[in-house]
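Progress note, sequence design subtask.
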């Protein structure tokens, strides 16, 4: 029985030596600044969350990820878990309350409730004609504005660690995450990757909010952000191709989760993903066990380069 069941992932927390440079990357990536203090940068997407990405000033580091609790009572329940902080009132833009925990690799996991919400930003979306539905857009010409993608929301975080089983079990026990797909190499007992989603009962959620894979070192593999649609993935790709940032992988469509993906590194090598069109599942979808060969493949697009597979930001 899990201590609580979180509602969704809330934000990424990184540390970077230059907040101007970080802000420029995130702006090119498709986020919007919502607040900036002397010590930290807060970026939002078009959905009404106050922020989805925090960068503190200092030596480059992955500090952790944050999750939305469903209620204040859930925060109270979490304070009784081993190593948990008490309920803290957050002294940061967006306010709210949080409980801090340490996951098995020593990274801080924040569980937050009552963060301020903001008005959504209207992103331009055009109807899509298809072979089956050729008349969705009548008399209107498709002319997409050039520029960065528009991130909607944060969607998942991915860690690598030698303690992958322990890390996954910790997230399931503390945060109520449930397995969508476990992936094994060789024998079925050798699980080397695990896709986990939030348990919102009958409500449909993304196929995964947390993926954890076996790695030599512990750290962040990537954070992932949903954009408006598949065109928005491609338009963002075009925009970032005209910059100095390093392209890590994509564009393609995953098998597990089925998102159309595109991965870029920030100036300190932290990988940020754009995606559109995820599988949406609920508690009735259950859990699966697949081999690496059957699971970690793309439906279209090139396979992942080594620099992506083995990437870890400590
Ligand atoms: Fe991802």
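Output:
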């Amino acid at each position: 029985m899990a201590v609580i069941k979180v509602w969704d992932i809330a934000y990424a927390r990184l540390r970077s030596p230059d907040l101007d440079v970080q802000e420029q990357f995130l702006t090119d990536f498709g986020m919007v600044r919502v607040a900036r203090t002397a010590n930290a940068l807060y970026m939002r997407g078009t959905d009404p969350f106050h922020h989805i990405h925090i960068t503190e000033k200092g030596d480059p580091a992955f500090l952790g990820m944050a999750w939305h609790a469903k209620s204040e009572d859930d925060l109270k329940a979490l304070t009784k878990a081993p190593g948990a902080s008490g309920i803290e009132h957050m002294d940061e833009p967006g306010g709210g309350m949080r409980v801090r925990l340490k996951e098995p690799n020593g990274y801080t996991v924040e569980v937050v409730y009552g963060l301020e919400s903001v008005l959504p930003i209207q992103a331009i979306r055009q109807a899509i004609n298809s072979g089956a539905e050729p008349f969705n857009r009548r008399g209107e010409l498709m002319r997409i504005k050039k520029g960065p993608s528009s991130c909607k929301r944060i969607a998942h975080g991915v860690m690598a660690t030698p303690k992958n089983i322990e890390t996954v079990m910790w997230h399931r026990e503390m945060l109520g995450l449930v397995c969508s797909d476990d992936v094994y190499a060789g024998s079925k007992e050798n699980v080397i990757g695990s896709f986990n989603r939030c348990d919102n009962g009958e409500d449909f959620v993304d196929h995964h909010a947390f993926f954890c894979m076996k790695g030599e070192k512990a750290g962040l593999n990537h954070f992932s952000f949903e954009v408006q649609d598949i065109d928005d993935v491609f338009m963002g790709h075009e925009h970032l191709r005209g910059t100095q940032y390093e392209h890590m992988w994509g564009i393609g469509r995953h098998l597990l989760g089925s998102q159309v993906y595109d991965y870029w590194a920030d100036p300190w090598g932290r990988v940020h993903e754009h995606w559109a069109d995820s599988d949406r599942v609920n508690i009735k979808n259950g859990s699966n066990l697949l081999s690496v060969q059957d699971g970690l493949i793309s439906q279209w697009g090139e396979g992942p380069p080594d620099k992506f597979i083995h990437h870890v930001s400590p």
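The mean pLDDT is 97. Work on this subtask will continue into the next period as scheduled.
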